[in-house]
Amino acid sequence: MRHQEVRDLLASGVSGQEYSKLSREFAELEPIVERIDVLQKAWKEKQDLDALLKDGSLDSELRKMTEEELRHVSESLPQLEKDVQLALLPKDEADEKNAILEVRAGTGGEEAALFAADLFRMYQRYADKQGWKFEVMEVSDTGIGGYKEASATITGKNVFARLKFESGVHRVQRVPATEASGRIHTSAATVAVLPEAEEVDIVIDDKDLRIDVYRASGAGGQHVNKTESAVRIVHLPTGLIVEQQTEKSQHKNKAKAMKLLRARLYEAERAAKDAARAADRKGQVGSGDRSERIRTYNFPQGRVTDHRINVTLYKIEDVMNGQALDDFIDALLAEDQASKLAELA
Fold this sequence. Notes:
Blueprint: H1 2-11, H2 16-53, H3 60-88, E1 99-105, H4 109-130, E2 133-141, E3 147-155, H5 159-163, E4 168-174, E5 185-195, E6 209-214, E7 230-235, E8 240-244, H6 250-277, E9 293-298, E10 303-306, E11 311-313, H7 316-320, H8 325-344
Parallel strand pairs: 4-9
Antiparallel strand pairs: 1-3, 1-5, 2-3, 4-5, 6-7, 7-8, 9-10, 10-11
C-alpha cells in the first residue's frame, strides 16, 4: 500500500527535496486512507448487525435496538461511499498552493479601471475573512481611484483551491461615477489567479534570463527614487516579461519578479496539460481562461450572475465586500466535483 510505503520512506531518513515531495504525497494520501477506513468499519458494522439479527434467541428489546442501529449505519453508507469517491478523484496538484492574484482593467476606460479596483478590494476583503495574508505586489493606479492593473500574493490554507475558478472576464453594469447623464455603462476587468510555484515545481536556469534594472517611476514619469531599484526580467525561451518596482530594494523587487515569473511559467505548464485533457472534460465549470466571461455584476438590479453555473445572487453589496463570495465558490467547487464523478460513472 502506497500510504505505508511513503510512511516508511519518510521514517528512513530521506531529506531535502525528496523529503518535501514525500511529505506532500503523504499529506494527500492520509485523508483518503482515513475515509476508506471509516467506510470499511461501517461495512463491517453492518455485516455484524445483519448477523446478529439472524440470531433467533435475540430478545425483542435488543432486536429493536439492533434494527435501529442497522438502519442508522445503512443510511450513512451512501455518503461514506461518496466521500471515498471524492477523495479518490484526480487531485489538482496546485490546490494546496498559495496564489498570485492579477486584476487588469479591460474594455470601458476609466470605469473599467474603477471596477478593477473594486474587484481587487473584494478579494482583499475575502482573504481577510478567510484569515489569509494578502500582500500587494504591484498597483498601477489611474489617479482617481481606478487600477489599470494590480497584483497580490495571497497566502493561507487552500488558497488556490478556493480561488482558481475566479480567473476570467468579470463584467459590470452600472452608472459610472464619471457619468453625468445617468446612463448605465457596461465595462469589464480581467482576473487571473495563478498558483504560486515553488523552486521544486519550476526550475529556471539563470542563462535563460535577461535581467534589466532601471529607476522606478510613478505617475507622470516622476522618479520615486534615485537608484536603479526597479527590475525587469525576460524569460528568453518563452518571451515572458515580468516587472517589479514597488520596493525600494532592487533585491526585493527581483525576488518578487522571480516569484511572479515562476507562477506564470507554472501556470503555462498546467494550461498545456489541461488543454490535452480538455476534450474529455466537456462538463467542466470553466477552463480558467482569462478571456472567458464568467460573471456579471449588475448594480442597478443589485444582482451578480455566474454564467458557468447559472447562479444569480441578489446581494451585490455582500458579494463586493467578500461576505457572499463563498456562495459562488462553493457552488463552483460542487459543480466541478459532480462533473468529475460523472466521468467515472
